[in-house]
Design a protein that fits this description.
By secondary structure, the chain is α+β, with helices and mostly antiparallel strands. It has 8 helices and 11 strands. The chain binds coenzyme A.
Amino acid sequence: MMRRNKTDWKPCPDRIRTIQGEVHVWRCPLGLSAKRAGGWLRVLSSDELIRAGRFVYKKDRVQFIVARAFLRVLLGRYLHRLPGAIRFTYGENGKPGLPAHTIHGPFGFNIAHAGDWIVCAVAPSSQIGVDIECPRRGLDVLSLGDSFLSDGEQEALRSLPVGERITSFLACWTRKEAYLKSMGKGLQVPLDSFQVSVRPSERPRMVAIDGNQDRAEHWFMEEFAPTQGYAGAVVAPGRNWKVVYRDFALESRASHEKMSVKA
Ligand SMILES: CC(C)(COP(=O)(O)OP(=O)(O)OC[C@H]1O[C@@H](n2cnc3c(N)ncnc32)[C@H](O)[C@@H]1OP(=O)(O)O)[C@@H](O)C(=O)NCCC(=O)NCCS
């Protein structure tokens, strides 16, 4: 079996900026007390406050607030803006982006949350996609595969020893979802219209799009784990990306606001 290397999460540098050819994947723990999360409400926009208010469970509300605060603080560091000054646009299928006049040159980001983690991928490309899944036990992956995976993926999954199927399914799922998220089209793209690698012995890659292997060559895919046992994938158009994995901690609002506006 091919060894899945442990992801090397590096500390957050003082200066954060996009670099041509680099994708940055940031991870941030979602666990913050309701009191500390409440301190971040002031940076949220009115539509985000409405969304936060709709969550039935406090834990979900807190996680949403922390996720948005993290996103705003992180993007603020790239764009030298205060977290509360970030404005989002939304694509036809809900992919968040930034208004063209607020960025200089190509800039894209995408977030995913699962369990107690949120990750954000940032790159000099708007077509960036990321997905993570937390470990799951007892998933009936063969029947899920029948519903969601392409024929080639189902076949690969069935060929694996039973003990490898859940992990391989989750790896496959994150690869597929990260690709959908990179394009921002959600389920408008049929899940069986493209095929990704599934077997642990294969490197993560797009295998075919609409049965065409040449088209698949134009997509970059890498796997990672926000923490042990999780699955994660980042996808971007093109081939030669270097992915740098970094930690981010949401500290006090005052300390972040000072960092955001530093030139
Ligand atoms: C958009 C979508 C991808 C979100 O997936 P999810 O697993 O529920 O959630 P994730 O944590 O991965 O990502 C959510 C984030 O993606 C971003 N997002 C929303 N719509 C998006 C879109 N169309 N494209 C890319 N990103 C999107 C948002 O930032 C969202 O976070 P927010 O709601 O806090 O702002 C989902 O709605 C979708 O269409 N999924 C495909 C479903 C599926 O069956 N996949 C199977 C793959 S085998």
